[in-house]
Amino acid sequence: MSKSLFQARQNANAFLKTLTYFTSLQELNEILANKTIVNSTCTSNGGTSLLEVSWYWSSSVGTADNNRVWEVDMSNGNNAEALRGGNNNIVRAVRAF
Predict the structure, then answer these.
(1) How far is residue 18's CA from residue 13's CA, in Å, rounded to a whole number?
(2) Mean pLDDT over each residue of the chain, to the nearest integer
């Protein structure tokens, strides 16, 4: 790989990192409320739809302590606190909200 191509990839990756972030609990609940539109938009742009039977981590810190985060069950809308890094949950990064 040429040095200029390598630098271009590094620049693109750095730029993309500035565009995405992890959703808060409130944002995940709003995504869930609009799941049909979100899934349609994601798949029509080459992405993946939300998994129906999975918990999604939020960036919101739990109320008990900083070692807990809020998560949302996309199958039924339940919200719960979980130990950070304690489960095999999914993280949904977004570009804009």
Answers:
(1) 9
(2) 80
